[in-house]
Write a structure and sequence with these properties.
Blueprint lengths: L1 E5 L3 H9 L5 E3 L2 H6 L5 H14 L3 E5 L5 H14 L3 E6 L2 H12 L4 E6 L2 H9 L4 E4 L1 H6 L4 H15 L4 E4 L5 H10 L3 E4 L1 H6 L4 H14 L3
Parallel strand pairs: 1-2, 1-8, 2-3, 3-4, 4-5, 5-6, 6-7, 7-8
Helix pairs in contact: 4-5, 6-8, 8-9
Bound molecules: SN-glycerol-3-phosphate (G3P).
Length: 216
């Protein structure tokens, strides 16, 4: 299972990368705005800065919602750096654009996916990644993890090449449940990743080992 960090915060990306377990980064317009990154030039420079920190795929989301706009924005993003993956919303024009990018050899991440039907369309269009948002489904009393498992099953059955990238992860249990469901990738903020480190018996055991070592 690949680990992506879901943030546009460069310090957190560095911290995650320093752990040695990061395989990539996902961003979205809200995460960019949260860091105060605004305007075309600043946004493009920020993507380049992220690519310089991490080895691996970096999802950069288009703002356009019409086919021509998505294609022109996506091509521009893809030219920025070989690690860029064009993140495209699951809308009719987005599916058409994903097919266009696929045929051109440009990697894509189909975002805002909330159903297995949408995931099938993304795979048929040749998306590199499909991003089901599990936390946002949980928010409306719908089991996000069940959707991950359903998509994984369908993709395996038909041998689709699209990787299931579980997004909108809110806590460590989401990561574990995604692993059990067979997600190819989880993308999450730094805190749930660091949460995986924690176990009280580890802390108690280490304290005892060190105390025993230091006994005279
Ligand atoms: O990048 C998409 C995503 O992971 C959104 O997460 O917490 O805003 O639902 P969240």
């Amino acid at each position: 299972m690949k680990f992506f960090i879901d943030t546009a915060n460069l310090d957190q990306i560095r911290e995650g990368n320093d752990l040695g377990i990061l395989d990539g980064v996902t961003t979205n317009p809200s995460l960019m705005a949260k860091e105060g990154i605004r305007g075309q030039e600043q946004i493009l420079n920020h993507y380049k800065a992220i690519c310089d920190i991490v080895d691996g795929d970096v999802s950069a989301e288009v703002i356009a919602t019409d086919f021509e706009g998505i294609v022109s924005e996506g091509e521009h993003l893809a030219e920025l750096h070989p690690q860029i993956v064009v993140k495209v919303p699951m809308i009719r024009e987005g599916v058409k654009a994903i097919r266009y990018f696929t045929d051109k050899g440009i990697k894509t991440n189909c975002t805002l996916v909330f159903s297995a039907g949408q995931a099938i369309l993304a795979a048929k269009a040749g998306a590199t990644y499909v991003s089901p948002f599990i936390g946002r489904l949980d928010d409306i009393s719908t089991n996000g993890i069940e959707l991950i498992a359903q998509i994984v099953d369908i993709y395996r059955y038909y041998d689709f090449g699209t990787q299931v990238l579980a997004a909108s992860i809110r806590h460590t249990m989401h990561i574990l449940e995604c692993a059990e469901a067979g997600a190819d990738v989880v993308t999450c903020p730094l805190d749930p990743i660091l949460g995986l480190l924690k176990h009280p018996l580890t802390d108690i055991g280490l304290a005892k080992f060190l105390a025993d070592h230091n006994k005279k």
